[in-house]
Amino acid sequence: MKIGNVELKNNIFLAPMAGVTDMPFRILCKEQECGLVYTEMVSAKGMHYDDDKSNKLTLMHEKERPGAVQIFGSDPKIMAEVAEKLNKSDAAIIDINMGCPAPKITKNGEGSALMKNPELVAEIIKSVVSASQKPVTVKIRKGWDDSTINAIEIARIAEKNGARAIAVHGRTREQYYSGKADWDIIRQVKEAVSIPVIGNGDVTGPKEAQKLLEETRCDAIMVGRGAQGNPWIFKKIVKFLEDGTIISDPSPKEKIETIIRHMDMLIDLKGEKTGILEMRSHIAWYIKGMRDAAYTKQKIFQMKGKEEIITLLRSFLMRQ
Ligand SMILES: Cc1cc2nc3c(=O)[nH]c(=O)nc-3n(C[C@H](O)[C@H](O)[C@H](O)COP(=O)(O)O)c2cc1C
């Protein structure tokens, strides 16, 4: 599988998720055979003003490469300036966010609100493509709402203006993350363009992955919520698609060890205070469904130190 000139190990990708796809998590997903990881969305305006937090979000560890940095914004000039800045980064691919439904983003005409403005979409993609030395991709939704479904039109615009792949989340902005993703729109986009199409929405295991690939003929798939606390999902999907084998779930011990590694890497990257704060929701996802998970989660959400969390996790492990 190739996007532009970037060769990827396979076609099962980790979807960009703000607050989820931090660098340590991306490394863990890559260890589990994920074909391509995306950063959390990064504000182009933030990078334009040289905001430290935004700049740091674009960092790519050698263990996760090749990876994609996702940017969001609505000003073609600023987007191009940021793409040029990213020419010096370790990102292999630049992805443009046209799917975020959050009001704080859409009220500025950014994220999924761009789908309401096809002319601006064309302008943004064109300027980013001409400024970037790396392949540019775009991530869209089905449309803004049920009365304005235009994923096909936007995909054609993306292709025409030089995008090298397009990811389609089969929900409208109005749906946010609820209801079932419409995979048929992914099939329709695939039929309409020649660049690779990445299907997205509701893949939570190997069988759905296979179904999405078969039903839509898309070139790759992107896993979002199904990967939260579950980096193992990638190897599971890859192996199943290879030879039909279902790999068993990780043991409780492996899960706890992975949590501790994730936490250590996050603390190294962001310091103990922020690392622990950000780790809390990851831990809740990792332990979901295990015995005593609710009680343990509640305790962890009150903890501020790494050592006390590890002690609690070890006693939690004994009870499994
Ligand atoms: C917590 C969370 C954060 C997200 N952040 C982003 C983001 O930064 N950029 C983006 O393009 N999509 C974002 N998404 C959307 C996902 O990439 C994906 O399109 C969506 O979750 C549907 O896929 P799924 O059904 O596999 O979860 C986010 C989704 C969730 C749940």
In short, what is this structure?
By secondary structure, the protein is of the alpha/beta class.
Write the layout of secondary structure elements.
Layout: E1 2-3, E2 6-7, E3 12-14, H1 23-31, E4 37-43, H2 44-48, H3 52-57, E5 67-72, H4 76-86, E6 93-98, H5 103-106, H6 118-131, E7 136-143, H7 151-160, E8 165-172, H8 183-192, E9 197-200, H9 206-216, E10 220-223, H10 233-243, H11 252-270, H12 272-287, H13 293-300, H14 306-318
Parallel strand pairs: 3-10, 4-5, 5-6, 6-7, 7-8, 8-9, 9-10
Antiparallel strand pairs: 1-2
Bound molecules: flavin mononucleotide (FMN).
Describe this structure in words.
By secondary structure, this protein is α/β, with parallel strands linked by helices. β1 and β2 (6-7) form a beta hairpin. The longest helix is centred in the last third of the chain and has 19 residues, at 252-270. The chain has helices at 23-31, 44-48, 52-57, 76-86, 103-106, 118-131, 151-160, 183-192, 206-216, 233-243, 252-270, 272-287, 293-300, 306-318, and strands at residues 2-3, 6-7, 12-14, 37-43, 67-72, 93-98, 136-143, 165-172, 197-200, 220-223. An eight-stranded parallel β-sheet has the order 3-10-9-8-7-6-5-4. It has a two-stranded antiparallel sheet with strand order 1-2. The protein starts with a strand and ends with a helix. Bound molecules: flavin mononucleotide (FMN). Flavin mononucleotide binds at residues 15-20, 40-41, 70, 97, 99-100, 139, 169, 177, 181, 200-203, 223-226. This is tRNA-dihydrouridine synthase.
